[in-house]
Amino acid sequence: xxxxxxxxxxxxxxxxxxxxxxxxxxxxxxxxxxxxxxxxxxxxxxxxxxxxxxxxxxxxxxxxxxxxxxxxxxxxxxxxxxxxxxxxxxxxxxxxxxxxxxxxxxxxxxxxxxxxxxxxxxxxxxxxxxxxxxxxxxxxxxxxxxxxxxxxxxxxxxxxxxxxxxxxxxxxxxxxxxxxxxxxxxxxxxxxxxxxxxxxxxxxxxxxxxxxxxxxxxxxxxxxx
Length: 225
What we know:
The protein has about 220 residues and is mainly alpha-helical. Helices cover about 75% and strands about 0% of the residues. The protein contains eight helices and no strands.
């Protein structure tokens, strides 16, 4: 599990809890948001375990039912196939849940929490500017009309590109992967399209000398990848 990827996820979950006027948040308050995000992640893993258990129970019921509740071969085959599908889902859920020890260990690393706090700090500081630029990139749409998770995904990627020096390819790809997990079915395509339009406009602004200072690039020797 990549440390910086988890830090982004923590920042994304913490973003949903930022107050309406977050500019004066202290480091401790930002740290508390990260702690709350960690609890959300652990809770998600626990939910995954419960889903795996339910899938296994459903699989067992289907297998038993194929012998006792059907009178034809085709019906029995269908129930067995449903049982196999449920078992596969359970295995997938258990595979995700087995990351619990690694998850707990990584989220407590100082570098992970520090990067998550840094992202939240920049979002809190630059949100009005970021949202204004996003409105321009979306043309006929507005940030405030988006689902919160999509707003936060866009803000996360732009803060990384503009203020933290993360390569645009990395920031956009990571936002797309997070969108596949947290947004709706087509959300990742929307996120990808908006970020690429924003990037094109940002490059044009920088080329014309009208862009803002993107801030310092991250330390290339950082242990976060």
